[in-house]
Amino acid sequence: MNTQPRRVEHQQTDRGYIPVYTTGVVEQPWAEYTRTDHEVWAQLFRRQRETLKNRATREFLENQERFGMSADAIPKFDDLNAVLKKGTGWEIVGVEGLLPDQVFFDHLANRRFPVTWWIRKPEQLDYISEPDLFHDLFGHVPLLLNPVFADYIQAYGKGGVKAHGIGADALMNLTRLYWYTVEFGLINTPQGLRIYGSGIVSSKGESIYCLESDAPNRIGFDLERIMRTRYKIDTYQQTYFVIDSFEQLMEATEPDFRPIYERLAKLDSFPAGEIQPSDRVIHRGTREGWIETPDT
Ligand SMILES: [Fe+2]
């Protein structure tokens, strides 16, 4: 079967004409990046490499080097794919922005990671509300070279395809799992807590806050606890979940989630910032400086 998506046409978008495929995949218009785009990449790259020393997990930093990512220019997806395909059989595909759940899950289930092709503007260095190239590429791509983490993301994608057929509650449970692991996860290492979540590594402020602030809770990974926990989309997280290893994540996805979804559907969700009696508390947050906005 020909699995290559069909190229439809060049389509006018907010950011000019780009080739569009039926699966929402676009070609990275690398030649179109401006000097400003490359400068934004360079500034963010240098700043985060510095911030993440002794804060991000070693694999994350080393894998960026294996990819040859540098401040010199926005990486070409084709160059990254040459390394990635050989490493774990994954590939990245360019997209215009967030995809419908089902399309996103289908990409992950087939070891394709969607990466937004455009990069934020200079005035958005510290915050952007939607994922851009810096978040996706700098943040997500490095750990796709880790074989266990790469399998976990695929398992998550397959779980998503299944959850889609089950219902909205199941999807919510799964979204929380992604949020508190892939996006905002911490990992315990012999050197201390380290960051592996992409939402954190692409934010200078949260890279420091998640490890060094007394305000947030840090508690041990627990699949069902996470699936019940609401989260913050407009502030730093109030709770971070800490894994002991990527193997622990992978093992957690082995059971069939259907009975878990059924059980959780009868239970209340937990507020983002509340400690529960059964939690393995690594640090109880002081809640200092929390702005009480509604959880998602
Ligand atoms: Fe992300």
Quick structural gist:
The protein is 43% helix and 15% strand.
Mean pLDDT: 92
Give helix % range: 40-55%
Q: What's the multimeric state?
A: single chain
> CATH superfamily membership, which one?
Aromatic amino acid hydroxylase
Largest sheet: 5 strands, mixed
Quickly list its features:
single chain, 296 residues, alpha/beta, Phenylalanine Hydroxylase, 5-stranded mixed sheet, 3-stranded mixed sheet, 12 helices, 15% strand, binds fe (ii) ion
Describe this structure in words.
This protein is 43% helix and 15% strand. With 296 residues, it is of the alpha/beta class. The protein has one domain: Phenylalanine Hydroxylase, CATH 1.10.800. Helix 4 (101-109) packs antiparallel against helix 6 (147-166) and helix 6 (147-166) runs parallel beside helix 11 (246-252). Residues 1-6 have low confidence and may be disordered. The structure holds fe (ii) ion. The site of fe (ii) ion (FE2) has 6 residues, from helix 5 and helix 8.
